[in-house]
From TrEMBL:
It is found in: Late endosome membrane; Lysosome membrane. The chain crosses the membrane at residues 92-113, 144-169, 175-193, 205-222, 291-314, 356-377, 404-423, 443-461, 473-494, 500-533. This is Natural resistance-associated macrophage protein 2. Its main location: membrane. It is a multi-pass membrane protein. Belongs to the NRAMP family. GO terms for molecular function: cadmium ion binding; cadmium ion transmembrane transporter activity; cobalt ion transmembrane transporter activity; ferrous iron transmembrane transporter activity; lead ion transmembrane transporter activity; manganese ion transmembrane transporter activity; nickel cation transmembrane transporter activity. GO terms for cellular component: late endosome membrane; lysosomal membrane; plasma membrane. It comes from Chelonia mydas (Green sea-turtle). Keywords: Ion transport, Iron, Iron transport, Lysosome, Membrane, Transmembrane, Transmembrane helix, Transport. HAMAP family: NRAMP. It comes from the Eukaryota.
């Protein structure tokens, strides 16, 4: 591995900005800078939002906070996608209020990790995919790109499933599931036209969708009237009384659903939409501060919405049996009573059955309002997934596609298996795909978390904003915890497959997967300062401070 400047440092950089990092040396593969072709390497909107001056309020200004508001709320949509909503309702139905503290902890961990991604984009002017492109060798770079593309496609499939189920519920079953899947193709292209109206209007539209989710799921919360004492106890006391394997797996599922790999790439790119003079240390500090405040507010809102969903199902359906629900649905003349067999097994719910049982217990309004909330979650997540895909493709491959072409590719890949399941299977198989997709995305987490910790810990990349010792230790521990939890989730899922051939395939994939994770972890540990892993060889790394297009290093 070698750290080298991507440009001709002998001509452009003074010797005053050199430092030595202990590392393993291999022959570097220089990356041609996109700017050398005379074209700007921009992966976001042409428009950049100016930041107003506010001399009266030097420490904190609501005007400035408003100017920085937007990227954090777009990022927070990943915490509200249909996969998260399904995890929430299953948590409530399986464990009641007892796992709310896990949701709170996962959201806080997510906030701290998003902070690293945002700082990377603000300080360097490059988002995470661009940094990977410029710093990793060709083979690991392509492997990283493929892994993140898998995560984006998996997320896209969950959003298609959620939207199709919502359309089916809203139409009282008149639009079949496969029809809802096809509709999601058309509406995504329609939303892309919002680009024409400017960045702030697009951000306002996403804010509108988040508001719809808050109102719809808030309506369900007010209707059900959860026990506030149990809610607060479950949120702030980290204990799960009389919990077994099922509750443990659900807790792991919450963490896996909340922290999304492609969201790190998305957030690091979204922050580039504000005008920040990176040559001015004060402006960079200010941008970091306001983006963090905005992220706190955005994730607090998303946390409240998730709490609404968990609490509704914890209060109304925790401990219920299929027989009880079947009787209530039959008495309310629901056409969906057959979904629940007449037995004493514990009720199992998903986003489809969730809407049905709400309708049985609290009337048709609860069902339709639930479906509107799911539709808003699916559509908003679809759009942010589209942008994530574009940033990742452009950053890793220096390949510029229009959003239209990008949507054609990812949506075609996502819709094909979803459409086949919707046509030839029933809704239970469609919602059952979410378990597999959660596992798929859990596997991709190291490929976002490890690079973001690596780059934000490198002084030649981040200069004075590199992670300190406390953040290096905390970041490493958090990433280890999150990845371990998600690996447990994967092991539980694979162990339930029950077929020898699948075990063999899983073992082979696991070996290759762990080798790649170990490679990335090795580079990360060197960046964190564990220099003896670099075998004692040294290479000079040049940096120029906070410039508009800072030189970067390359990891081989």
């Amino acid at each position: 591995m070698a750290f080298v400047n991507a440009e001709d440092v002998a001509e452009d950089v003074s010797e005053d900005h050199e430092e030595v990092i202990s590392t393993i040396y291999n022959r570097p593969v220089p990356q041609q800078s996109p700017e050398s072709n005379g074209e700007p390497f921009a992966t976001y909107f042409d428009e950049k939002i100016p930041i107003p001056e506010d001399e009266k309020h030097s420490w904190f200004s609501f005007r400035k906070l408003w100017a920085f508001t937007g990227p954090g709320f777009l990022m927070s949509i990943a915490y509200l996608d249909p996969g998260n909503i399904e995890s929430d309702l299953q948590s409530g139905a399986v464990a009641g209020f007892k796992l709310l503290w896990v949701l709170l902890l996962a959201t806080v961990i997510g906030l701290l990790l998003q902070r690293l991604a945002a700082r990377l984009g603000v300080v360097t002017g490059l988002h995470l995919a661009e940094m990977c492109n410029r710093q990793y060798q060709k083979v690991p770079r392509i492997m990283l790109w493929l892994m993140i593309e898998l995560a984006i496609i998996g997320s896209d499939m969950q959003e298609v499933i959620g939207s199709a189920i919502a359309i089916n519920l809203l139409s009282a079953g008149k639009v079949p599931l496969w029809g809802g899947v096809l509709i999601t193709i058309a509406d995504t292209f329609m939303f892309l036209f919002l680009d024409k109206y400017g960045l702030r209007k697009l951000e306002a539209f996403f804010g509108f969708l988040i508001t719809i989710m808050a109102l719809t799921f808030g309506y369900e919360y007010v209707t059900v009237k959860p026990d506030q004492g149990k809610l607060l106890k479950g949120m702030f006391i980290p204990y799960c009384d009389k919990c077994g394997t099922q509750q443990l797996e659900q807790a792991v599922g919450i963490v896996g659903a909340v922290i999304m790999p492609h969201n790190m790439y998305l957030h690091s790119a979204l922050v580039k939409s504000r005008q920040v003079n990176r040559a001015d240390k004060r402006e960079v500090q200010e941008a970091n501060k306001y983006f963090f405040i905005e992220s706190c507010v955005a994730l607090f809102v998303s946390f409240l919405i998730n709490v609404f969903v968990v609490s509704v199902f914890a209060e109304a359906f925790f401990g219920k049996t299929n027989e009880q629900v079947n009787k209530v649905c039959t008495n309310s003349s629901s056409p969906h009573a057959g979904l629940f067999p007449n037995n004493n097994e514990t009720l199992e719910v998903d986003i489809y059955k969730g809407g049905v049982v709400l309708g049985c217990y609290f009337g048709p309004a609860a069902l339709y309002i639930w479906a509107v909330g799911i539709l808003a979650a699916g559509q908003s997540s679809t759009m942010t997934g589209t942008y994530s895909g574009q940033f990742v493709m452009e950053g890793f491959l220096n390949l510029k596609w229009s959003r239209f072409a990008r949507v054609i590719l990812t949506r075609s890949i996502a819709i094909t298996p979803t459409l086949l399941v919707a046509i030839f299977q029933d809704v239970e198989h469609l919602t059952g795909m979410n378990d597999f997709l959660n596992v798929l995305q859990s596997l991709q987490l190291p490929f976002a978390l490890i690079p973001v910790l690596t780059f934000t810990s490198l002084h030649p990349v981040m200069n004075d904003f590199a992670n300190g010792l406390g953040w290096k230790i905390a970041g490493g521990v958090l990433i280890l915890i999150v990845c371990s939890i998600n690996m447990y989730f994967v092991v539980v899922y694979v162990s339930a497959l029950g077929h020898l051939a699948l075990y063999v395939v899983a073992a082979v994939v696991c070996v290759a997967y762990l080798c790649f994770v170990a490679y990335l972890s090795w580079l990360c540990l060197i960046a964190l300062g564990i220099s003896f892993l670099a075998c004692g060889q040294t290479v000079s790394v040049t940096r120029t401070g906070l410039t508009e297009e800072p030189p970067v290093t390359q990891i081989n």
